[in-house]
Amino acid sequence: MSLALLDTHAWVWLMNGSEQLGPKARKAIQRSLGDEAVLVSAISAWEVAMLASKGRLVLDRDVGEWIHAALAVPGLRLEPISHEVAVASTRLPGLLHADPADRLIMATARHCRATLVTADQVLIGYGKAGHIRTLHAGL
Q1: What is the pLDDT, as a whole number, of residue 1?
Q2: What confidence tens digit (pLDDT) does each residue in 67-77 have?
Q3: What is the pLDDT of residue 97?
Q4: How high is the pLDDT of residue 98?
Q5: Phi and psi for 59 in degrees, rounded to 5?
Q6: Which domain holds residue 12?
Q7: Using CA atoms, how far apart are residues 88 and 33, in angstroms rounded to an integer?
Q8: Cβ neighbours of residue 8 under 8 Å, at least 6 residues apart?
Q9: How many structural domains comprise the chain?
Q10: Mind listing the pLDDT tens digit for each residue in 59-111?
Q11: What is the mean pLDDT of residues 35-61?
Q12: What is the CATH number of the domain that holds 107?
């Protein structure tokens, strides 16, 4: 895996040192970080902030500070939502995910030709159907 795109939960697991991030995914991400080839979609920053505001994600600091620190990791970069990705998220092939944020993440993976690191079974199934490359993030 050269270029990796972290799904929101995989990014949180990585940054929080969670054991939920499996060893295979952790090793692949570390390798890609060394190559400066790890992406996080801008929609993931929004998802983290929304989850924190609803109390569904508890962070060790203010969400803005957490995101700033999580984006400062060497080898990781924020991938903006371009108009091309926004439009592509409405034109994805195959069975589509109902969550707009996940659709943007899938479109970003396709646009960047990145492997999506996720534990979301719907997204993994989308990968098995040949629409994106995926790497299971979990154990």
Answers
A1: 64
A2: 999 999 999 99
A3: 67
A4: 82
A5: -110, 165
A6: 4-136
A7: 27
A8: 43, 44, 47, 48, 101, 105
A9: 1
A10: 999 999 999 999 999 999 999 999 999 999 999 998 776 899 999 999 999 99
A11: 97
A12: 3.40.50.1010
36: left (phi over 0), alpha (psi -120 to 50) or beta: left
Sign of CA dihedral 10, 139, 100, 127: positive
Q: Which value, to the nearest 10 degrees, does the dihedral of the CA atoms of residues 19, 80, 103, 26 take?
A: -20
Q: At what angle do helices 63-71 and 42-53 cross, to 10 degrees?
A: 150
Look-up: residue for tokens 């409405």? 90
C-alpha span between 103 and 88 (Å, rounded): 9
88's tokens: 């592509």
Residues, the chain: 139
